[in-house]
Amino acid sequence: MGIGHSVIAKNMRLMRNNLKVLSETPDVIAELERLISTVTPPVMGKAVYDCNIVATMLHYGIDTILTHNVKDFTPRYDGMITVMPLI
Question: Do the domain assignments include residue 52?
């Protein structure tokens, strides 16, 4: 059945009003390029999206991520960010 459009719209308004959206600036892209060329194991495929999240975090001074996908961020970004399991 899924979630209705009115519920989705309400949740979007709540998020927009209560969360800060971080822009993907040229400096974030530069950080992404730096990470792609330096982290191990190498970033390939879908891992670029996670790398972009980390680049954004580093640029904006965010040091911790709460995620279901701990394995997507460790060990590649150990020492750069703190990864906390959601559950």
Answer: yes
Q: DSSP code of 72?
A: G
Report how many domains make up the chain.
1
Full domain range(s) for residue 40:
23-85
Q: What is the pTM of this model?
A: 0.84
Residue 56 lies in a domain: yes
Beta bridge partners of residue 81, listed in sequence order: 78
Q: How does pLDDT run across 30-87, given as a tens digit for each residue?
A: 999 999 999 999 999 999 999 999 999 999 999 999 999 999 999 999 999 999 999 8
Please report whether residue 49 resides in a domain.
yes
Contact status, residue 80 vs residue 63, Cβ threshold 8 Å: no
Write down the residue that tokens 């709460």 correspond to.
66
Q: Which long-range contacts does 39-46 make (Cβ < 8 Å, 24+ apart)?
A: 39/76, 39/77, 40/76, 41/76, 43/76
Structural domain includes residue 44: yes
